[in-house]
Amino acid sequence: MGRSSRERVARNFITRYGAEELTWLLDALANGESGQNIAERFDVSRERVRQWKNTFGQVVTLYQVHPEVQGLLAVEPEPEPEPVSPRRGSGGVFLVED
Asked: Do 20 and 28 form a contact (C-beta atoms < 8 A)?
């Protein structure tokens, strides 16, 4: 559905029910209110509510891991490797720290 179609449907909704009712509808949809309850409020079918839902917004599903499970995966920082001391008499290049 194009932008102009969405706007047309929203304007028709506001003309019929009012801006406050559109706000209520959008909040109800965002909060997962049942289509049946919304349909009863506006005296329409659940199919009409489904159409409004698809026209006025989009459902986004989010999977969030529980903190106690995420905590099991917390990785402790790896310890810094200890410097290697040069061997005496090896005659190589030595790192000297001040």
From this structure: no
Closest CA to 25 of 44, 49, 7: 49
Q: What tokens appear for 1 in the block?
A: 């559905």
The amino acid present at 45, given as its one-letter code, is S
Q: What is the DSSP string of 12-79?
A: HHHHHH-HHHHHHHHHHHHTT--HHHHHHHHT--HHHHHHHHHHH----------HHHHHHTPPPPPP
| 28 close to 40: Cβ distance less than 8 angstroms | no
Q: What is the pLDDT of residues 17-49, one digit of tens each?
A: 999 999 999 999 999 999 999 999 999 999 999
Q: What is the Cα–Cα distance from 86 to 92, expressed in whole angstroms? A: 8
- pLDDT of amino acid 81: 75
DSSP conformation class of 91 = -
